[in-house]
Every structure is written in C-alpha cells, then in structure tokens.
Design a protein that fits this description.
The protein has five helices and seven strands, in the order αβββααββαββα. By secondary structure, it is an alpha+beta fold.
C-alpha cells in the first residue's frame, strides 16, 4: 500500500484502515477503536498530508495491532491511530474509556455510537457506570443486527 493508494481509498471509499507492520488492509472482522491523542482533522488531504501524519506517528503505527485510520465525515477528513479489538464488549469499553464518539464494526461496515464516559465519582463508580454503559450499547447494537 503506497501513499497514492491510501489517498485513493479515502477519496473513493470514504476511508481506510491500514496496518503498516502486517500489511492488513481494511479488516473485515473485529472493531476499530481510536487511541486518544492521535486524531487530526483536515479540510483537504494530499499524499504529502498522509506522509507527514505517518512520519509524525510512526513510532505508534509500527505496533502489530496499530492501524493508520482515515475517514470522511461531513466533508472533513480525519486521521487517527486505531487498534483492532476482536470482542465487541472490550471494544465498546475501550472506546468509552478513550472518550471516542464511536467505534467501527469492520464486519458490518457501520459505526457504533458510544456515550461519554463517567468522569465524576470514585474510580469504582466510574468503572461501574462505564460497564453499565457498555452493556446498554452492546445490547442495543446486537438487537439491530
């Protein structure tokens, strides 16, 4: 996968997930969960934009489970570093704790929207709330599949 192909995937298909270490490209299983602190938004991207982002985050992108992620939402192009998690419950929990708006179901090609994490209360109260939120999200999502 080269920069031209990554840009083509973003422009033609609205996004791409690519693992630079394994070569895995747009996986069809598991769930993509963004890691906090890596998201960047652009009005327009070119090959150089992708190259600069990859260079800046290369240390984190060479992890075996790390993916370069890009998607388009309302004409804004987003880049991030994501991980693929096989279990729906674990992926939802990681997404909530990482304060993500959504995770991505690779098999069904759909975003699963998440609630905000609990930030007040004791650690135990926060963890309990987050687990209950995951239970609700998973139950609701599985009901519509």
């Amino acid at each position: 996968m080269n920069l031209r192909n990554l840009l083509k995937e973003i422009n033609d298909n609205g996004g791409v997930s690519y693992n630079f270490t394994t070569g895995d490209y747009n996986p069809t299983d598991g769930y993509m969960v963004s890691l906090p602190g890596f998201e960047m938004a652009f009005d327009k991207v070119e090959e150089q934009t992708i190259k600069d982002y990859i260079t800046k985050n290369l240390h984190d992108l060479v992890d075996n489970n790390a993916y370069f992620g890009a998607w388009v939402d309302r004409d804004i192009i987003y880049f991030d570093v994501s991980v693929k998690i096989d279990d729906l419950y674990e992926a939802c929990y990681a997404g909530i704790v990482n304060e993500q708006l959504a995770i991505y179901d690779n098999a069904n090609a759909v975003a699963i929207h998440l609630p905000s994490p609990q930030k007040s209360g004791t650690f135990t109260q926060q963890a309990t709330y987050n687990k209950q939120a995951v239970d609700r999200v998973v139950e609701e999502y599985l009901a519509i599949l």
